[in-house]
Amino acid sequence: MSARQSIRILRSTAAARSVIRSAASKRAFTALAVAATRPAVAASTAAPIRPIVQQRGLKSINFGGTEEVVHERGDWPREKLLDYFKNDTLALIGYGSQGYGQGLNLRDNGINVIIGVRKDGASWKAAIEDGWVPGKNLFDVDTAIQKGTIVMNLLSDAAQSETWPHIKPLLTKGKTLYFSHGFSPVFKDLTKVETPKDIDVILVAPKGSGRTVRSLFKEGRGINSSYAVWQDVTGKAEEKAIALAVAVGSGYIYKTTFEKEVRSDLYGERGCLMGGIHGMFLAQYEVLRERGHSPSEAFNETVEEATQSLYPLIGKYGMDYMYDACSTTARRGALDWSPKFKDALKPVFNELYDRVVDGSETKRSLEFNSQPDYRDKFEKELQEIRELEIWRVGKEVRKLRPENN
Ligand SMILES: NC(=O)c1ccc[n+]([C@@H]2O[C@H](COP(=O)([O-])OP(=O)(O)OC[C@H]3O[C@@H](n4cnc5c(N)ncnc54)[C@H](OP(=O)(O)O)[C@@H]3O)[C@@H](O)[C@H]2O)c1
């Protein structure tokens, strides 16, 4: 019996399930193959579980009925990463949220990484505070790009467009260009980011803020990231993207295209991740307040219970578990109302997706974020949010958490 056949048999056992769930490393696959030789395992009729097949480091996983090939950190142990990048200098341009997270993780992984930012700007100072040394591994943007073999463009999306006429000639043959968002090349009609034809262009997009990229890495965990290839001139672009994804601190990595990454990303952050959820919080809170409920009651029923009790359950165990963990009264009502919210919101989500695809959201973002006073304008809007009653109440409620007393 081949190891692969054995693994297939093992899939149908509860014993294998726990092994497969933790199959983040080759060691786990070895354990599977060894365990698979036991006859009792083959006879089990336990519920089917997600299939998993090892093919030269790739894993095909069944995500709710759709097979996807994914990669995991265990496929790229540190020694393999160090060997893979032994002749490379990674020039990371921009030291904002992602530059910070990805840069420090690369450095801690022992990869040869340098930072390129505007001299004496806010990022230059932040980089020095994080231990980057001018002239050693901290340079102005041009010098860093010239020194780099892999240029990681982690400027803000607006800055990528603004600086492109200057940066493009520095991206000479043999270098690799890396993004963490498909924004600039996909919307090139608007951004003018037309990548040189003779270099590999790849993407690794962590699904979270750069602060989380860093904090998960420090905890020994990893952020989920997507990866994609825009241009492959060496035949090695995909492999390079996967290796870089692991090197910057990813846990599991799934394949996408530049177009799909940018669409899902712009859509998600405007929807459930940020804009949509804020809109829903505000609507619910306002109705409670207008109907005579106290700030404490309105805030606890809208935000505090969500973030402190229920959403963590969704994150850890799933939506069904969360429903199951609540009273039958709550469960009945939530199950009845969920389709109504879905029907009301789906047209809004479709409108949003259309605006992402036709470039309206990109145009809006570029125009706003290219203004010299964009930071002040954002601050004004954030101040307005800070001053909303709901978030002022939130500040007081957080203070009252026993752990903050
Ligand atoms: N933040 C996230 O959660 C996240 C998640 C996934 C992917 N991404 C992607 O990662 C990339 C970087 O995003 P980010 O959020 O890390 O960016 P950010 O925090 O906005 O970083 C801005 C960086 O760009 C520099 N910069 C701005 N304008 C510049 C200019 N005109 N010339 C030179 N440098 C300029 C800033 O330097 P100064 O300090 O000198 O102004 C700073 O280092 C983007 O493509 C983004 O879409 C972000």
From TrEMBL:
Top-level class of the enzyme under EC nomenclature: oxidoreductase
Protein's UniProt name: Ketol-acid reductoisomerase, mitochondrial
Biological process according to GO: isoleucine biosynthetic process; L-valine biosynthetic process
Cofactor comment: Binds 2 magnesium ions per subunit.
A GO molecular-function descriptor: ketol-acid reductoisomerase activity
Family, similarity comment: Belongs to the ketol-acid reductoisomerase family.
Pfam family, one: KARI_N
Gene3D superfamilies according to UniProt: N-(1-d-carboxylethyl)-l-norvaline Dehydrogenase, domain 2, NAD(P)-binding Rossmann-like Domain
Pathway(s) of this molecule: Amino-acid biosynthesis; L-isoleucine biosynthesis; L-isoleucine from 2-oxobutanoate: step 2/4; Amino-acid biosynthesis; L-valine biosynthesis; L-valine from pyruvate: step 2/4
Organism name: Magnusiomyces paraingens
InterPro entries in the cross-refs: 6-PGluconate_DH-like_C_sf (IPR008927), 6PGD_dom2 (IPR013328), KARI (IPR013023), KARI_C (IPR000506), KARI_N (IPR013116), KetolA_reductoisomerase_fun (IPR016207), NAD(P)-bd_dom_sf (IPR036291)
KARI N-terminal Rossmann domain span: 67-256
Main subcellular location: mitochondrion
Lineage: Eukaryota, Fungi, Dikarya, Ascomycota, Saccharomycotina
Entry's EC annotation: 1.1.1.86
Localization (cell): Mitochondrion
GO cellular component, one term: mitochondrial matrix
